[in-house]
Amino acid sequence: MKLFGKTNFHGGVHMGDGSDKELTSNDKMIIYQPKTVEISMKQSGGRPCNPIVNIGDRVIKGQVIGTPTGFGVANIHASVSGTVMDMVTNKESQDNDVLVITIEADTNNGDDQLDTEIPTDQDYHTGFTDISSFSKEDIISSMKDGGLIGMGGAGFPTHVKYETDKTIDYVLINAAECEPFLTCDHRLMLEFGYDILNGVNLLLKASEAKKAIICIEDNKIDAANYLNDLLLEQGLPIEVKILETRYPQGGERQLTEAVLRKEVPAGKLPADIGVIINNVATAKAVADLMFANTPLIYRCITITGKVKKPANYFVPIGTRYSELVELSGGFTTVSNRVIVGGPMTGNGILYNSGISELEGSVTKTSSGLLVLEDMTIIESPCIRCGECERVCPAGLAPYKIDYAFITRDYDLCEKLHSTECISCGCCSFVCPAKRELAYRTTGARYTVANIRSKRRDKQNEK
After folding, report:
1. Are 35-111 and 299-373 in the same CATH fold?
2. Segment 309-363, tens digit of pLDDT
3. Dihedrals φ, ψ of 185, to 5°?
4. Do the beta carbons of residue 110 and residue 61 sit within 8 Å?
5. 426-452 tens-digit pLDDT
6. pLDDT tens-digit profile of 36-91?
7. How distant, in Å, are the alpha carbons of 44, 162, 253 from that of 89?
8. Pick from 23, 93, 305, 342: most CB atoms within 10 A?
9. Torsion sign across C-alpha atoms 98, 104, 105, 106
10. DSSP 322
C-alpha cells in the first residue's frame, strides 16, 4: 500500500471536517427487499431504453426488460421476479418523457425484508477465485449483456471502455468517493472486499493492463487497510494507493493526474493515454456478473442528511426513494431540499414537501439521496476575486464564462473552453458573491457542445 502525501491535481477544495460522512460510514449496510419496484427505462446519460415487456407479463429476476436504442446505453433487467403491473410515462429532471415499469414481486420473495448480514454463500465472497476459464472476450461480452455501467458518474456502459483499440497500461479503481455525505462505496469496500478484488482481477484481464490501482482517499483508511490486508502475499498486480482527501479527487482527469502524474489531453479520453477508470461498485458488479450470473440489478445507496436514521441500504434497482426515507425515519425538517446524489453534483427532486410527494426510484447510478435544510441564496455582482479560477480543476475561468453565457456570447464561451467544465461545483462553493457559476458554466458547456454538433452536421452535408 502506498501513501500519497500530497494531491497533485490542479485546483479543488477541502469540503469540511468529515462529520457529514460519519452520519453513515460506521454502520453496516441494511439489505432491503421491497414488495414493488419502479424501474426507469433511463438509467444513464444516454437515450432511454426500449421496453420489451407488457403489462401483465411475468418476469424473472435478471430478465432483460429494456434494450438499448443507441450508443451509450445498456440493457436493463428486472430486479425482482414478479408481474408487470403498470407502465407509466414520467418526466425526468431534464423534462424529457421516460417510461417507468412497475413490477410487483412474487409473494414468496416480495415481503419487506430488513437485514444487516450480507450473504456469503459463494466462493468469491470469501476468497480469491480462479478466473482462468474466462477469456477477455467472455468478460466484455458479459458486461454488455449484463447491463454494466459506471456506477459512480454518468453511467457510461462499461463494455465500451474495454472494446478500445488502445493499449491499456493501468486500470484505476475509483474508490475516492469525494462527494460530501456519501459513504456507499466506503461500506462496499468494508463489507464486500473479496467481491471487489475479484472484480478488479476480472477488469485487469479484460483490459490486458499490467496493473490495477485502487485509489482511496485518506478519510477511508480502514477500507484501504482492509483491502491491502486481503491482497497481502497474493502476488496479484493490484495496488492500494491512499490519496489526500480533496474534492473532486474522483474526477477521471483529476484521479489520473494525482495517481499517475499524467494529463488527459482536452477532447481526449483516459484510454488515449493508456488508462481505464472504473468505480469500485462497478468492480463488485463485474464479480457478481461473472461468478453469480447476476446482472446489474442491485446497488448500495446512502440515505442521509436531515433524516432521523441516516443509513446505507443495499437494494434492488427500482426501489422507491420514498420507502427508503420512511425506513430512515422520515424527514427531520419541514423546509427540505431532497437531492439525488451529493450536494455538489446531485439533482434536486423535491422542495419543502412531505414524503408522500417524493417521486422516483433507485437507478444504477443512484449513489445517494440527501436531505438538506432548504435556504434562499441571493446572488450579488461578481467582485473579480478570482477564487473560482483558482479552485477550478479544469483550469477554467468560471466568472468569465458566467458573463459570456448570461450575455449569450457563445463564441466567447467556446473560446474560454467551456466544454472542458466537469460540473464539479467548486466554483459556486467558493464564490463569496453566491453566484450560480457551476449552473451557468455547465449550461455553456452543453450549449457549445450542441453548436459544435450542428456545425459538424452541416459540414457533413456538404
Report:
1. no
2. 999 999 999 999 999 999 999 999 999 999 999 999 999 999 999 999 999 999 9
3. -70, -35
4. no
5. 999 999 999 999 999 999 999 999 999
6. 999 999 998 778 999 999 999 999 999 999 999 888 899 999 999 999 999 999 87
7. 17, 33, 36
8. 305
9. negative
10. H
Residue listed under C-alpha cell 431504453: 49
pLDDT above 70 coverage of the chain, percent: 95
Residue 449 CB contacts under 8 Å (≥ 6 apart), including other chains:
419
Enumerate residues 6+ apart whose C-beta is below 8 A from 436.
379, 402, 428
Residue pointed to by grid coordinates 473552453:
417
For the residues 291-308, what does the mean pLDDT come to? Answer: 97
> Per-residue DSSP letters for 5-27?
SS--SS--B---SSHHHHTTTTS
Which of the following CATH numbers is that of domain 35-111: 1.20.1250, 1.10.10, 2.40.50, 2.60.40? 2.40.50
Domain ranges of the chain: 35-111, 299-373, 387-461
Q: Select from 280, 262, 216, 219 the least CA-distant residue to 243.
A: 216
Q: Does the predicted model carry a pTM greater than 0.70?
A: yes
The alpha carbon of 364 is separated from its chain's Cα centroid by a whole number of angstroms, namely 8
Place of cell 467556446: 414
DSSP summary character for residue 320: B
CATH topology for 299-373 is Ubiquitin-like (UB roll) (3.10.20)
Question: What cell was used for 27?
Answer: 454502520
